[in-house]
Structure formats: C-alpha cells, structure tokens
Amino acid sequence: MPVKTVYNTAIESVSILDEHGNFDAKLGKGLIPDKDVVKLYEHMCVCRHLDEVAFKLQRSGRMGTYPENRGQEATSLGAAYVLKPQDWLVTCYRENAGLFWRGLPMESILLHWMGDERGNAIPAGLNVTPIAIPIGTQMLHATGLGWSMKYRGEDGVACTFFGDGATSEGDFHEAANFAANLDLPVIFFCQNNGWAISVPSRIQCSAPTLAQRGIAYGMDTIQVDGNDLFAVVYAMKAAVKRARTHHRPTFIEAVTYRLGDHTTADDARRYRDPAEVESWQHKDPILRLRAYLEGKKLWNGAKQEAIEAHAKETISAVVKRAEDIDAPSNVDFFDSMYVTMPADLRVQRDTMRTSSLGQNPAELQGAPQPAAAHVAR
Amino acid sequence: MPVKTVYNTAIESVSILDEHGNFDAKLGKGLIPDKDVVKLYEHMCVCRHLDEVAFKLQRSGRMGTYPENRGQEATSLGAAYVLKPQDWLVTCYRENAGLFWRGLPMESILLHWMGDERGNAIPAGLNVTPIAIPIGTQMLHATGLGWSMKYRGEDGVACTFFGDGATSEGDFHEAANFAANLDLPVIFFCQNNGWAISVPSRIQCSAPTLAQRGIAYGMDTIQVDGNDLFAVVYAMKAAVKRARTHHRPTFIEAVTYRLGDHTTADDARRYRDPAEVESWQHKDPILRLRAYLEGKKLWNGAKQEAIEAHAKETISAVVKRAEDIDAPSNVDFFDSMYVTMPADLRVQRDTMRTSSLGQNPAELQGAPQPAAAHVAR
Amino acid sequence: MANLTLVQAINLALIQEMEKDDRVLILGEDVGRNGGVFRVTEGLHQRFGDARVVDTPLAESGIIGTAIGLAMGGLRPVPEIQFEGFLGPAYDQITTHAARFRTRTRGTLTCPLTIRVPVGGGIHAPELHSDSPESIYAHTPGLKVVMPSSPYDAKGLLISAIRDPDPVIFFEPKRIYRAFREEVPEDEYTVPIGEARVVTEGEEMTMISWGASVIQCMNAIEASGRSIELVDLRTIYPLDIETIARSVRKTGRAVIVHEAPKTCGLGAEIATLIMEHCFLQLEAPVQRVTGFDTVMPYYKLELEYLPDETRIGRAIEETAAY
Amino acid sequence: MANLTLVQAINLALIQEMEKDDRVLILGEDVGRNGGVFRVTEGLHQRFGDARVVDTPLAESGIIGTAIGLAMGGLRPVPEIQFEGFLGPAYDQITTHAARFRTRTRGTLTCPLTIRVPVGGGIHAPELHSDSPESIYAHTPGLKVVMPSSPYDAKGLLISAIRDPDPVIFFEPKRIYRAFREEVPEDEYTVPIGEARVVTEGEEMTMISWGASVIQCMNAIEASGRSIELVDLRTIYPLDIETIARSVRKTGRAVIVHEAPKTCGLGAEIATLIMEHCFLQLEAPVQRVTGFDTVMPYYKLELEYLPDETRIGRAIEETAAY
Ligand SMILES: Cc1ncc(C[n+]2csc(CCOP(=O)(O)OP(=O)(O)O)c2C)c(N)n1
Ligand SMILES: Cc1ncc(C[n+]2csc(CCOP(=O)(O)OP(=O)(O)O)c2C)c(N)n1
Ligand SMILES: [Mg+2]
Ligand SMILES: [Mg+2]
User: Fold this and answer.
1) C172 vs A113, C6, C134, C141, D40, CA distance in Å?
2) C2-184 is classed in which CATH architecture?
3) Rg over CA atoms, chain A
4) What is the pLDDT of residues A76-124, one digit of tens each?
5) Was domain D197-321 assigned CATH 3.40.50.920?
6) Most exposed among B74, B173, C287, D19, judged by the fewest C-beta atoms under 10 Å?
7) CA-CA distance, A40 to A46, in Å (whole number)?
8) Do the Cβ atoms of D206 and D254 come closer than 8 Å?
9) B70 CB less than 6 Å from ligand 2?
10) Pair B295, B289: CB distance under 8 Å
11) For A4, which of B2, B13, B171 is closest by C-beta distance?
12) Cα A136 to middle of ligand 1, angstroms
C-alpha cells in the first residue's frame, strides 16, 4: 500500500447548558450538585461586581490598567471548582473567578493592578501563581509544577490558563510538548475569547479549531462552550482524572468571548463590530446560569437582590482594604530580590535617598561629603 | 447535539520505491524521467563520497567537527530537484546533496567545517542560506523569505529543512503558525532521522507521527519514506504546487535515519542499539536507487566504476581547493560586520596587533607610547 | 514645519518612508487596524493596506525571525515589538541571526531591518512594561542601537534607521511619546546614526544621557544653576565617544544618567571610555545616576527607581564638590 | 583528595549533591545516557535513573521554564544548556521569570535552580559554541552568576550554587574542562558565592579576570617577570569589589581581561567600580584586554579574537609605563 493512513483523529465539542436554556440531561447528570450550582452562581455575581468596580476605579484614576473579566467567569471558575487544594492553578490575568474560588484574597488582585507587588504575595498553602503579564510564558511553569508533583509521587495536577493569542508563542508549544512527551499531569486550558487585543483569533490560528493544537502532541484534546459552566466542569473532570491517574496532559479549548475592552487602556470599538459584541451578550455565562437556576426553582428575584447586596458590601470592603493599605516603604523593592542581599545592593538601598546613585559617598575614597544643603534637598 | 465532531482528519504516508525494490507504478509514473533518475543517483554517489572524505579529514585533524549526511541524501536532493531557481532552500546542516544539486560549490561546505566563514559566502543568484548551527531557528527565515516573494508578487517558494529535534523548539511552532495564518508559500520539510544526538525522536514527539504537527496549523501535511527519492519528489511536487498556486504551506515528515554518528564529536554507540543501525543499512537510499536503475537496465557495474572514479577525482579537487585557500587575514572578522565600520571598531581592527585592547595607545590621552621592546614582542 | 509629539514624528517618518520605498513594510502585534497600542502606526493600515501593515500572530520571535527572512529577501521590514519587556522571546533571533547574518555570509545575506520598541519607565504601566535593556543590545556586535529624546531626532533617526543597510534597534522612550511637541520639518531629513548631540554647552561638568532621562537632566541642570554641558547620545551603538571625550577634556567632570540597572549598564561603558580617553583631565570619578540593581518595581514605586531631578542634582553637587 | 579535571570535579559535585538531597534533579539535552556532550553528567543516569536525570525535548526555553516550575514546586533542578550560544532561546524565561519570581511574589514563590552552561572559546568548535555572555546576565537583577577557573573552585562553587535559594547561572569554561588537574577533596565543601580569590599577590598592578582567561593571565604575568596581583573573580554577580578595590588601592594600576566583546562587557563595570572606589589611588587608566566588538570568528581565527599572552603582556607594559 503505497499511500496508507497512519493516523486519524477527530475533535469533539461539548455543550451542556446552551444559551437558549437547553440542558443536556445525560451529560449534565450529577455533574454539579444543585447547592454547588447556586454557590458557583453567587460567586460569579460577586466576581462580576468586583470587575465592574475595578473598571470604575481605573476610570476614576484610583487604579492603573485593568483587564475586564466580564463574560469569561465560567471558565476559570469551572476549572477551580474541579481542582483539589493540592493542585496548582497557573493563570494569566482574566481568571479572577477561579482564583477567588480557590481562596485568593480579592484585594490581592486589586493591589496588583494598583501597581503594588504586595498583591502578588501568595497565602501559604494556596497553590496559585501570580498574574502573568508576559503572554504565553506561564504554561511552562505549570509543566514544571506538574512534573514536581509527579516526581514526588503526589497525585497533584497543574492546570494552566491562557488565551488564544498565547497559543502563538513558542513557549506554549514547548510546554505542551514537554508535558506530552514526559507524561506530565498538566491541563492546558485555552480561553479562546476571539481576540488578542485587536487581533482576531483567526490570525493566531487559521485552523478550524484551536483544540487541534493538542493533536500535534498526541494529547487528548477537546473543545467546550466556555460560557457553559457545566461543559467546562465536564471537560475538566475528564482532564483531571487523566492527569491524576495516567499523568497525561489534556488540551481544552473553551470558546468564549471578551465582552469588554482588552484592558482599560484599550478601545475595542476601533476594531470590533458592535453586532459581534451584541451577539455574545446573550451568551453571558451569568445570564445563562441564572435562567437555569430559576427554571429549577433554585433562584428568584429576592435571592438576586440579596446576592447583589452582599456583593456590594463585600467588594466595597475589599476596595477599602486595598486602598487603605500603607504606602510601601520606598526601599521595598530591594528587600525580596535575594534571600541574602548582596553588599552592593544593600549600599544602594541604604543610601538611595542620601546619595546620588545609591552609593555611599564615604565609599568614594577621598570624596568629600556633599554639603549639608544638598543632602537636605 | 451536546457532543459534536467539529473536525476530523487523517495523516497519510507515501512510499513509492521501497527497500525491497517494489515500485508503485501508479504513483511513480512520470514522476522523474529516467535520465534524471540516473543523474540524481550519480549525484548521490558523489555526495556520499564527499561525506566519507570529510569524515576522514576530520579524523586526521584536517577539519573540525563534521556532521555526516550518510543515509539522508534522498531528502534534500529530492526537494532540490523539484525546486526552481527562484525558490529558496533554507537548510540545517545535513543537506549537502540538495545544496550541491542547486549549485553550491562543494568546497564551501568543507570550508565551513574547517572553521572558515568564507565557506558561507553565497554565490550570486543562488537562493540558499548558510548552514544553520542553532537548531530550529532557520524555519522563521524561510517563512520570511516566502513572504518576501509573495509580497513582490513573485511565485517563489521557500523550502526549509530541519530535524525531528528541531520541531521541539518554539521557533518551529511560530514559523509554521505564521506561514499557515498569513498564507505563505513555505514548505516545512522535517527529516525525522530517529535521533537528536542521543535523544530518540519519541522524546521530541510522542504522538504516532511527526506529520501531525502540521494539523495544529490547519496545514496540509504528509508523511513520506525519506529514503525513497520518488516519494520525496512526489510530496514535494504537491507541496510546491500548493505554495505557488495558493500560497499555502505544507508540512512534510520524511522518515529516514542517521546512519553515522551525530557529528564526528559524537559516539553513537553510547546510546544506540547496533541492531537498529544495521536494520537501516538496508534501507539506504543509494542502494535502493541503484537496484531500481539496474532493474531497469539503466545502470551496471561499469557505470558504477565510472561514477566512483569521477567522484574520487571531483572530491579530491574539492578538498585541494578547500585546503589550498590562503589563510584568512587576521582582521578578516572585522570586515563584514557592518557596511560602514564604526570608528571604534576600526581602531580595534587597525591596532589589534599593536595595542593591548585594540585601542590606539595614542588615543589614551597623555599615555606614553609603550617602549619599543614591548611592541616588538 | 509642524508642531509634533514624538509619536507623531515617528508616524510621519513611517508614512514618508513607506510612500518613498515600497520595500518598506510594517509587521507586529496590533499595528494594523488598531494603529499600535501607542497609536504609533495610526492610519497606516488604512493608507497602505493589508499587505504593507500586517498584524501578525502573537509571537515576538516569529515577528523578528520572519522580518529577518523578509530583509534577506530584499525588503525593508520595520517590525514593532509592543514593549521592551517582550523583546525577551525575540532575543535569540536578534542576537543569533539579525546581528550575525552579514558577517556570517560575508555580506551576501544581510538584514536591513528596523526593530521599533517602546522603552523605559514612568508611565504607570504593569510589570515588564518599563525596562531599559539598551546595554544588552549594545553588547551584541552587529547591531546598531538608537534612542531619540525629541520629536525632531526621532523622525530623522528613524529615517536613517530604515535606510540603514544593517539591523537597527530603534528604542522609543514611551514616557515622552506625548510629553511635549517640537517643530519638525514636514520634508524628509535624516539625523545620522552615531552622532551625539550637545544639548546645552557648559564648563563645569559634562552630563551624558539618552532617551527620556534627557528631560530629567535638563531640569536638574536648570535647578542646579551650574554651567553643565549636556550630551544626548541619540545613538547607543556606535557610541559617539568623540563628542563625549571632547566635552570631558574641557570640563574634567562627568555624570551619566540612565534608567537601566547600574551593574553592566551602558553607564559603565561610557565611564570606562571616559577614563580611557580623558584620564589625565579627570578631576573627579565619573558618577552614575541609574536605576538600581533590582527589578523595576511595580508602578507605585517606579518614581523611586527612576533617576529624578533630586538624585541627578545630588550627583551634580557631589561631582562638583569632589 | 583526588587529582581531578574541572569536568570531573563538577561531576563529583553533582553526584554528591544528588546523593545528599533527593530534591536535586538534572534535566537537559543529552544529559542522560549520553552523559552530556562534554560528559559532565557521565554516569549519573545509570546511578540515579530516569526520574532524576532527564533527557528533555530539544527546547531551551522549555528546559528553563519547566525548571522554574520544578523549583517553585519545591525541587532543586540543575538544568544544563548545551552551549552558551543556546541560552538565547531561554533568555526570556531566565530574565523574565527565574530572576523575578522571588521579588514578584515577595518571597512566596522562589526559583532555587542552577543553570549549568559551558562557556567561552578556544576549542575549535562551530559558530555559537564559543561566546561569553556573562555581562548580559550580570545586568539582570535577581540572578547570581558564577564562573570557576579551577577544579577545586568548580566543585565548591557548584555545591554552593545548588544549595543557594536563588537562581544561579553556573558558567563552565569549556576550554579548561580537561586542560589540567588539581587536588580536589573528595568530601563535600563549599566555595562561597560572591568571593573573589587572589591567585597571586603582587605590588605593581592588579589583574582581574575569570574563567579560562585566568590561565592566560597567569602565563602572561609569569612572562612579564613583574609583580602582579591576580584576582580571579569566581563570582560575576554579586561582584566582590572589596577584594578588587583593596588590591588596586595597593597597586594603583589595573588590567581586566575577558573574552566577551569590549562594549558593555563586564570589564566596563569593573573598571568603573575601580574608578569609583580608588579614584585617588589610580595611577593609570584601567586597561581592558577583551574580545573585540565583532562576532566571535569561526575557529580558524578564534585565537586572534581571544585575549592571549601577547595582548595581555602588552597591556601590562602599557599600564606599567603609564
Ligand atoms: C510576550 C508578550 N507579548 C505581547 C504582550 C502584550 N499583550 C498583552 S495582552 C495581549 C493579547 C493577549 O491575547 P490572548 O492571549 O488571546 O489573551 P486575552 O487577553 O484575549 O485573554 C498582548 C499582545 C505581552 N503582554 N506579552
Ligand atoms: C538551539 C540549539 N540547541 C542545542 C544545540 C545542540 N545540538 C546540535 S545538533 C542537536 C540535535 C539536533 O537534532 P535534530 O533536529 O533531530 O537534527 P539531526 O542532527 O538529527 O539532523 C543538538 C541538540 C544547537 N545546535 N542549537
Ligand atoms: Mg484572547
Ligand atoms: Mg534528528
């Protein structure tokens, strides 16, 4: 046989609760207990409120650039819901809902975007990494974290989040390839939200699906409706099981949409069709879950009011904590560089306000001390 | 339909002339005219001889590290045979046969491995790039070269060669992704020779085929028997047509084998099973083509003797040219850095033998000239 | 003449070079319809179309590596890297290939490309959006490195860079993208690569800086009330040591100001060159006012990190008093 | 005590640290069954098995990026990059992440990893196998950078590096991997990071070098017949300026020798620090004997590029005569 087929495969796409309220009872059965669905819904409401408040903080000059999460809450939340405490969640910057679900204090995220490294300190025992600013680099850390757990014989899993744009970076490829070839318990969770700032996802991947990236590595791969919490949980459960049991990675493409601008520094009207945005408004994961809960009589207007009041209260306390924190000391940025501060760095630190280049003038052999007048300036 | 198939695909593998002499008449028909097969065979014999001589030159201390090409001649030669002069061939370091077919002087390759940049000067009008030492980086240049031809409205194609190991580098991914998404006329030719130095190809790609790397980009992709000149030409013709006509890239995985050590600095016995090497000896593309030609009465012992004598003569003249070249001037390496040499660099160049750091001592304001005795040393 | 910001001057240079030479094309992330995140390429996509202003996949090594191929293929690509912090993934293609192809092939394959990169701190941006890696690239033979500090120089230097037959990294100090305007000729003109500019003449000491810090230096000099000669490098490599040495031979004292960390920053190279060229005229050690040897802090503290008037002023006084 | 080459000393240090601490693992290209292309990890795969000596895919960013994850996950990875020329693809992970995680997270996530990299010229290797990028990493806050010049120091420094809680780049001067042997204690010991070594004492001038060049310096000093104090840095960052300054205050003269290109090489930093610390004692400009500001030529000319006894000798005489 001179031409023979040596490989074939297919990509499947999963949707359980669609935007019209259809719920696939077979796939959805027992997936998430009702009381958890309620909790998850409430959590999404609180996260959405934080998102709105953060946006306003930026607009009123009380915070730097902020990337809205709006419309993408179901992805990271679904993943976090399935992960166990020993697992690692290695995110990008649009995963507030998942991070908060795992226990990251909400003010940490605000502090980060307020330009304060203290927002990146991770509470002990919480297996998350800080917001990743450089696109596409964090997946390798997840691969290494997954590897470290396998190395120690633990059954932990590392789940990493990234966007459609990030899959164009070489590091994505290397991370997936390491995980597949070294048999590592890693989940590659791609949030395909249609855009990388102004660049549409077809420029990142002109193939019919992003999910087929996984085929290159012989990795199990699946596409899900990323605005469908149930579908996300469904895919995550399979992926986590595969990772824990067989140390095999999975690629998940979650099809979702960035309802807001890329960040507050962006103006998406420059490059997006308003009709496209409009069409996705109806697919909002929060609307969808609320309708589902109401249909099951698990939710009503009073509960909605209550959660909104709760969200308001919670978030205003969070904002207060973030804003009331003492200003960092002006030498703060020296102190976590190394466990033991190198001598020259200590001199720079200790004299940064009294000497020009942070060098003790006394060190300049024979140099006269600057006149007092100048020091005082 | 909550689970639906959104994509499916298959990888095909092509073999036309197999190691047992079977020839697929249907696929092979009219692929390469007989007289060309003879020429290609003769060329492979000459290249093989150069390879053997180069190996000996290294062993006898007359050349630096050299990577044997032995066993892989059919891949680059088949590609070069299909390419037109306007096309670019962007190689790695095991593609002597293809480079020489296109017209690169054989002594260029020897000079390169003799540690002489003059071996990298490209004759005018010859669209090839020099040997690529850093693995996995040259595919991006092919992507750019293909793009430049499309930009100008020319119908040229860029064909780039790389190994199985190279497909693990992020740059491979970026090059393929750019070519696919920007619709560029590029052929990604992977020589899967089983090994990257001591690392077997399953560590680079644990998927059933390397060809499926192409699926990630929605790229046409095919596997061929890389020791089968006909199969290589078959795949290349399709790929070139696709590139010229539709500006679409193709991924070709050619399954071949590195019969020798990685380079003369390597000792493959440390990590390879001799039985594996032995099994591939029989698949040698030269043996196979000779048997084919003999079967068609296009070749015989006398012709073989003649080509061997010719090879010997040719290569000894090549070696002589490479070895007889004047030593490069000791400032040679300054002269091609920039079109216009920066002033400080000129000082370094002009004083490199007369001053310590290539700095004219007269430039050291007030510095006394070093005593004559020291200058003479 | 038009009164332009630095961003506008660069935009104008791009338009003029693209009009003049159809080998010039722009590629990068968000450079197309969006006009770049700083709007430097605003209007170009509309004007020159899809083929000449190209939004690429999000991959910096890919952008530079394909630009190298474009350049070897006879074009004059002007890739944009969105922020200097994202030069990292392209570092290998820049240093291993762009910088080496000419000498590697003895001039037969060359890389006339201009890599545009916003650089430096002071705009309250997130992490990795405020660094100053110029000395890394100055240490890479085969490149030219340029950093204007004014709209006039920006336009003239960018035109020189695009026309230069060798690879140029064109750093754009983002802090002053829109900080002030300057008269910029509408006609094309070039500012030569490799020539520093004496901004203000002076007798007591020489101050050397480049990019956005030049503005800080001007303010500090004015505040000091002293006669200080300010040299704006404009080109990082090849470095115009002649202009610097001429000044220091006259003044006997020098202060260098840059945002990058101190250790192995460009300040060290300049200080050493001054010592080599002006040893007997030097009356005080050359002072460096630089970023600290720490990671640039998040923006709450970035102004503590960046050399400011106070720190520069203190260096002036220390150097004068020495 | 055993009489070991530098390669053997490193191999011994790896074995001992792996025996002692099962968090230590090795990853890289060809480090497993093949024992590394320089045989530095020879025998380790056999001894410690697949899980602790791991051949990875051919991807340097992948090697360093996963090593960062391994380190954050509580292990002590010792990745190998096969040649310094292939640090390029890993540059971003090293500078953007390994160097920054501690300060980025205020110490909650850290990167105790040791990146082993053969470095430097002189072995007649192909392109990109002979470079000296130490100043690039010295300019990157958050890293430590080490380069031994002898078997004894190699073992002691490598043990310190592996135990160091911060990321260390451990450069191995490949030219002297097997050039000579030295008595090396079989027991474990450490050489502290951050301390230079005075190799020979002297009065007339100070010579500063590191890595393989130290051997060239020793020869040149001997040939000169002069009393020269030779300082072997051993650690590139943090730099032991105290030891250097103490010496130069005594001798008044200094020569720095390194293989890397001159512009923005580490020599510039050291020369500037000497000026800052010893200005009034300096009797001659600090001299640099370095690689040129060109790409390292292919091996036919590499010895023209590398500082040799003749060039160092000439600098000694020029400096003495000043
Ligand atoms: C390495 C790198 N290059 C460029 C940028 C600038 N940048 C920030 S976000 C972004 C787009 C990211 O798109 P995607 O990965 O799809 O994530 P999304 O924002 O859509 O969630 C770009 C180009 C960056 N942060 N890092
Ligand atoms: C970026 C980079 N990393 C590592 C090396 C060292 N090295 C040279 S060849 C090689 C293996 C290449 O394997 P493959 O791509 O399969 O090509 P082959 O030699 O088998 O043809 C390695 C690791 C290199 N040259 N460049
Ligand atoms: Mg996106
Ligand atoms: Mg191979």
Assistant:
1) 24, 9, 11, 21, 44
2) 3-Layer(aba) Sandwich (3.40)
3) 24
4) 999 999 999 999 999 999 999 999 999 999 999 999 999 999 999 999 9
5) yes
6) D19
7) 10
8) yes
9) no
10) no
11) B13
12) 8
